[in-house]
Amino acid sequence: MTTRRQFINHTSNALLGLATFSTISLLNKKLIADPSQDNTIATLEKRIPVLMSQKLVPGVAITIINNGQLYWTRSFGVKNYKTKQPIDNNTIFAAASLTKPLFAYTVLKLCEQGQLHLNSPLTEYTSTPYIKDSRIKQINTRMVLSHTTGFPNWSGNAPVWIERTPGTKFGYSGEGYLYLQKVVEQITGQPLDIYIKNNFLQPWGMKNSSLTWESEFETLATYGHDRAGNPKMMSKPTKAISAGSLRTTATDYAQFLMAMMNPGTLESPYLTQPSIEEMLYPQIKITQSLDWGLGWGIEHTPNGNCFWHWGDVGTFKSFTVASPSLKTGIVILTNSENGLKISEEIVRLAIGGQHPAFRFSMIRY
């Protein structure tokens, strides 16, 4: 087992050695956290390796969006603590629940096309009910995307069940997403990974992203790491899971954030402005400062509402947050069970402000 002192010493040396690796400054525009963009970037490049050493995080990839465009992307650390292979901007991470907003976006596009309706019971699209409980007839797309189906988060190997009356209370549920995935695959006649890749990922230029494992990922993927810094191989999904199987890079996922900020036409692979507004409209209140929209968490800040999500699959943790009004945002992907311990400070340094999303009850640090 790696000791904390060993991890800090080795990781600090590795990070110092990688101090000039994998940096792209893409636009000469100012960040909102500091009137001097150069000072903000310099602060991030100095502070992030310190945070990684303190919290035992071997690798991090970050992309910042400003004015609705890619601004800066940077990779720190290593893919595998033992081999010390460096992370770069093409390194693949397990994005976990960052998959959910992407799936929600896909669903809203089907709604725009008239193939699906937010308020119609999902039983209208299936030949047989998903479960025997008669309340299944109440569950619609809006409930799934706002986590108000009444399903548990996960049912394990048991058939899913309804815990509470659908539409009445927030209850985060991956099971709801799996139900809606079955409906979407029936409507489109395609496996979800193929449909999303052809209609969204490829048109957006997300060339290093997929909901299932691809052969190219063998050399690009990072290992995950437990709290002690021990490397754990990334799982390789053979079937898409709408709730969490996305494999991606920080730069690729930022393309999706930009899609949220830059609406398109009905004929394009982008949602129209009314559909974006529908996604980001609060559907259910969680706390005084947090609501849930369709696929996204919504946080209330002094600078206006931001949409956000986190990802947690144990040895990979991730976080993203963006302001639709300011058109700023950040993607943070980590290869560590400790990853969320450094995310809040990175967000504050990069885009400024206080973010109540980090107080969400399900986030495990």
From TrEMBL:
<feature type="domain" description="Beta-lactamase-related">
    <location>
        <begin position="47"/>
        <end position="339"/>
    </location>
</feature>
<dbReference type="InterPro" id="IPR001466">
    <property type="entry name" value="Beta-lactam-related"/>
</dbReference>
<dbReference type="Pfam" id="PF00144">
    <property type="entry name" value="Beta-lactamase"/>
</dbReference>
<dbReference type="InterPro" id="IPR012338">
    <property type="entry name" value="Beta-lactam/transpept-like"/>
</dbReference>
<protein>
    <submittedName>
        <fullName>Beta-lactamase</fullName>
    </submittedName>
</protein>
<dbReference type="InterPro" id="IPR050491">
    <property type="entry name" value="AmpC-like"/>
</dbReference>
